[in-house]
């Protein structure tokens, strides 16, 4: 079994950081409560250099924040796309981006929900258990407008579902009970500063603004 899949295809080897990150700039990550995170994003209709540059910025911003996935509205851009660099439960690394993602409804007979911990770069410092299907299939396009299907299991399935939710204007807090949501916000109050300090240190370690 190959250990890295890029854009859904196995590759022989891959750098520690996706090459996109080297071309990108760090952007501010939006936080739950900001409008752009709570409404459905617009479909991407222009596939060109601006979209590619946005993807570069999103990769770098995700790495700086030690994230496994990042949607465009998490850097304040109201468009349907996300990037990811995420392991699954078999130790396989998945790296890529997908534009205008649509999550396929899980097959009812094989649907299995896994309860596992989940965090979000826009809810800095909180980690909560969220039930998610153990398998996810997302259909969309790549940055050049070519159709793309990404499939994942385990933690990567969770990532695909979480990021597609962002494009729909949902954050994972919306999937929690009122009591759990309160607990998540308490964790944010406790750890937010710590998370931001780590991001600043990561930017510094990178040696550029
Ligand atoms: Zn998130």
Morphology call: globular
Multimeric organization: single chain
**Total domain units:** 1
- Spell out the helices and strands N to C: EEHHEEEEEEEHH
Largest sheet: 7 strands, mixed
CATH architecture: Alpha-Beta Complex
The CATH H-level superfamily is Peptide deformylase
Indicate the radius of gyration in whole angstroms: 16 Å
Structural class, from helix and strand content?
A: alpha+beta
Enumerate how many helices there are, as a single number.
4
Range of strand content: 25-35%
The level of helicity is 25-40%
Average residue pLDDT: 95
Q: CATH topology, which one?
A: Peptide Deformylase
* CATH class membership: Alpha Beta
Distance between the termini: 38 Å
Q: Name the bound molecules.
A: zinc ion
Give me a quick take on this structure.
By secondary structure, this protein is α+β, with helices and mostly antiparallel strands.
Please render the helix and strand layout as text.
Blueprint (H helix, E strand, L loop, with lengths): L3 E3 L2 E3 L8 H4 L25 H16 L4 E3 L9 E7 L5 E11 L9 E7 L7 E7 L1 E7 L5 E7 H14 L10 H29 L3
Parallel strand pairs: 1-5
Antiparallel strand pairs: 1-2, 3-4, 4-5, 5-8, 6-7, 8-9
The chain binds zinc ion (ZN).
């Amino acid at each position: 079994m190959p250990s890295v899949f890029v854009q859904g295809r196995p590759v022989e080897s891959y750098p520690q950081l996706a090459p996109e990150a080297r071309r990108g700039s760090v952007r501010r990550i939006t936080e739950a409560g900001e409008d752009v995170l709570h409404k459905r994003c617009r479909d991407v209709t222009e596939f060109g250099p601006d979209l590619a540059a946005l993807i570069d910025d999103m990769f770098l911003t995700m790495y700086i924040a030690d994230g496994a996935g990042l949607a465009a509205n998490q850097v304040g851009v109201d468009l349907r796309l996300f990037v990811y660099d995420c392991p699954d439960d078999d130790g396989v690394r998945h790296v890529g981006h997908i534009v205008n993602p649509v999550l396929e409804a899980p097959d009812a007979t094989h649907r299995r929900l896994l309860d596992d911990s989940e965090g979000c770069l826009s809810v800095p410092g909180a980690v909560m258990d969220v039930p998610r299907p153990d398998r996810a299939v997302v259909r969309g396009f790549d940055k050049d407008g070519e159709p793309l299907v990404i499939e994942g299991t385990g933690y990567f399935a969770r990532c695909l579902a979480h990021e597609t939710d962002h494009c729909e204007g949902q954050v994972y807090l919306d999937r929690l009970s009122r009591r759990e949501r309160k607990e998540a916000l308490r964790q944010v109050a406790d750890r937010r500063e710590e998370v931001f300090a780590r991001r600043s240190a990561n930017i510094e370690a990178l040696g550029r603004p």
